[in-house]
Automatic annotation (TrEMBL):
Keywords in alphabetical order: Membrane, NADP, Oxidoreductase, Transmembrane, Transmembrane helix
Every Thioesterase domain range: 473-534
Single Gene Ontology MF annotation: oxidoreductase activity
Protein name in the entry: Short-chain dehydrogenase, putative (AFU_orthologue AFUA_8G00280)
Keyword ATP-binding: no
Membrane spanning residue stretches: 584-601
One Pfam family from the record: adh_short
Protein family according to the UniProt entry: Belongs to the short-chain dehydrogenases/reductases (SDR) family.
Length: 661
């Protein structure tokens, strides 16, 4: 066949011509139901012997029919099915979690966002968004974000959005994408809005991830009457007449000319072209039709479908409507440079759920990847109830040699003074629960100061949230100074039995640490500390440990990350009298702060290397994508590195939403 392609080119012809580009690829296609363009696409590319075709859709029966057609024509091609309902964002998240669990599928070379509905009656998704906008755009937007880690594992990553020249019917209705909750709904305007969104999403992907090798395109397959998407129309003749009338009202040429109808084979050809044609690198983000890059001077291309400003506005709107945060970043602690992808579901009320996926060099690292971030608890009774629900902590709480004691700074006060849990730390995702215990000494032990508690060992349980992160999943070092200051004040307050004025606190003179791995967040840790030596009544040696899961580490992490487990410190007191008071309960609380400080140091060490994560952020309302390579040395925590990578482009919501900086 000729190497020039046009409206008459078929998908099978293109697949044969591009077989070398198809062979060995992993391709995921949404909406490949029988008699659809998606089905014709996957059946055609099977001729090129891809390594795997993933069929994603609502109906398992229909997916099996398409898989059967592929197996009959090309038995050697592997096919897997993925349940996906794009009309429900909850279903999209579940599909993404399932796909993430497929350890034998470490990458996706081509994602074809093909599924769609057209001209349907007004309906809202479970999330309250108009159904065509949700199914055709928002579901694909969220899916792409959630699986982008696997896509970027490919040497030749591509995302293809099947749009339509129906985008001519409407730009994005920024102030009224729901058509006044259906009161002024027009199904063709809604369809046009969703198809415009498909185009703008491709523009954004090219902008954000083009520097990492990702190619993204949108396309118009052509007018194909005999496809499953047209089956949703009530009356074909009446609907087409209404469409013609709308085009005339809008001044579109389609209102006066006949539609040029294609076969399904011809309609699927542009999808094959967008997914595999090697000569499109210089046209990243483009809108295609009839197997070429559409010319806005001769083809029907509306400027609202290709404008970069409009694309950015849509990205932010889509983040807001998806209520998701997604993160991809280079995991540099210990110099391993692995990749970590996280999603934090952000419901309006209740607990948060933190989902993470860790990638090794060539494969997904298995493990329990969902963690609940509990809502904030502010009373000791609530804290005890929370920690009793964690088996390994509950076992420690049952130890009769320790006594549970209230933490004064746990109580929120009108003033921020002497209150660890006011303002920024009064959050579901910072420190949601905290509990102090001290060891009981012999019955004849006496305190060194009136009203102080006779003990030489203290331990604290803390449930840490995601907003304390430095690197994603690692305790944020920037909070250390706050914790250290507050814990010193806390110990003084407890030891003075009411807070007598004029007391001076201890200072850290020497710190020695042994690293095993950083402290993970979100999660629960226990920090213990004990006095091991006293010298000259003003020098005290403290030994502390920070542990989780009763000394057991998470199965997904130990082989990749060092762990902090042991620290020693020498304390000096500026006044003997105050030191005697502080001595009794200082150890563990100080060690907690010191251990957290080590995490900060770990972040600094890890940051001084090639920061491979992306640096394009849009966190004001939700989704964050990494997209710009960053290979300059960067000192400070991960947030500082990201800030440097972003330069002046740092978003307003970065610090507020994730606490990275």
């Amino acid at each position: 066949m000729a190497t020039s392609y046009d409206a008459t080119t078929t998908a099978s012809e293109l697949a044969d011509h591009l077989s070398a580009d198809i062979k060995g690829k992993v391709v995921l296609t949404t909406g490949p139901s029988p008699a659809s363009i998606g089905a014709m696409f996957v059946e055609s590319i099977a001729r090129g012997l891809p390594a795997l075709i993933i069929l994603a859709g609502r109906s398992t029966t229909k997916l099996q029919q398409t898989a059967g057609a592929i197996a009959q024509a090309q038995p050697v091609v592997k096919v897997r099915l993925l349940h996906l309902d794009l009309g429900s964002l909850a279903s999209v998240r579940e599909a993404a979690r399932e796909l993430a669990s497929w350890e034998d599928v470490p990458r996706i070379d081509v994602l074809v966002n093909n599924a769609g509905i057209m001209g349907t009656k007004f309906a809202l998704s479970p999330e309250g968004v108009e159904s065509q906008f949700t199914t055709n755009h928002l579901g694909h937007f969220l899916l792409t974000n959630l699986i982008i880690g696997k896509i970027l594992k490919s040497d030749t990553p591509r995302v293809v959005n099947v749009s339509s020249d129906g985008h001519r019917l409407s730009p994005i209705r920024w102030a009224d994408y729901n058509f006044q909750e259906g009161e002024i709904y027009n199904k063709w305007l809604a369809y046009g809005q969703s198809k415009t969104a498909n185009m703008l999403m491709a523009v954004s992907l090219a902008e954000k991830l083009g520097s990492r090798g990702l190619l993204a395109f949108s396309l118009h397959p052509g007018v194909i009457i005999s496809t499953s998407i047209s089956g949703g129309l009530d009356n074909m003749d009446e609907d087409l007449a209404a469409l013609k009338a709308l085009d005339r009202m809008l001044g579109n040429a389609e209102g006066w000319r006949d539609f040029k109808v294609k076969t399904r084979q011809q309609g699927a050809a542009t999808t094959v072209y967008a997914a595999f044609y090697p000569g499109l690198k210089e046209s990243n983000g483009a809108y295609l039709q009839d197997c070429h890059v559409a010319d806005p001077w001769t083809d029907t291309v509306k400027p609202w479908g290709t404008d970069k400003v409009e694309a950015e506005r849509l990205w932010k709107l889509s983040e807001k409507l998806s209520m998701e945060w997604t993160v991809e970043a280079g995991l540099l602690a210990g110099g391993y440079g692995k990749s970590l992808q996280m999603c934090i579901q952000k419901p309006k009320t209740g607990d948060h759920y933190f989902h993470f996926v860790i990638y090794g060099e060539n494969q997904l690292v298995p493990g329990n990847n969902t963690i609940r971030i509990p809502s904030v608890r502010m009373t000791m009774a609530d804290d005890i109830t929370h920690f009793r629900s964690i088996p390994w902590v509950s076992d420690l709480l049952n130890d009769p040699t320790f006594v549970t004691h209230p933490i004064p700074s746990r109580k929120i006060k009108a003033s921020t003074e002497d209150s660890l849990f006011s303002t920024t730390l009064n959050s579901r995702s910072t420190i949601s629960s905290c509990l102090l215990q001290y060891r009981i000494l012999s019955s004849n032990a006496t305190p060194l100061y009136r009203n102080a508690i006779p003990t030489n060992e203290v331990r604290i349980f803390c449930t840490l949230g995601s907003d304390l992160n430095g690197y994603p999943g690692i305790l944020h070092g920037g909070i250390v100074a706050t914790l250290l200051d507050e814990f010193m004040g806390l110990i003084l307050s407890m030891s003075r039995a009411g807070g007598e004025p004029g007391m001076e606190g201890p200072v850290t003179a020497y710190l020695n640490t042994r690293f095993v791995r950083p402290v993970m967040t979100p999660g629960t840790v226990v920090v213990s500390g004990r006095i091991v030596e006293a010298k000259e009544e003003r020098k005290w040696k403290i030994v502390g440990n920070i542990k989780d899961t009763s000394n057991k580490t998470s199965p997904a992490w130990p082989q990749y990350m060092p762990r902090i487990s042991h620290a020693t410190a020498l304390l000096l007191s500026t006044a003997t009298e105050s030191f005697l008071k502080v001595e009794l309960q200082m150890p563990a609380l100080l060690i907690l702060a010191l251990a957290l400080l080590l995490v900060c140091l770990s972040n600094m060490i890890g940051s001084y290397s090639s920061f491979a994560a992306a640096a394009t952020f849009h966190l004001d309302s939700g989704i964050y994508f990494s997209g710009i390579g960053f290979e300059q040395p960067c000192f400070g925590n991960a947030g500082n590195c990201l800030e440097r990578a972003l330069g002046k482009g740092k978003p307003r919501g970065l610090k507020k939403n994730l606490g990275l900086i």
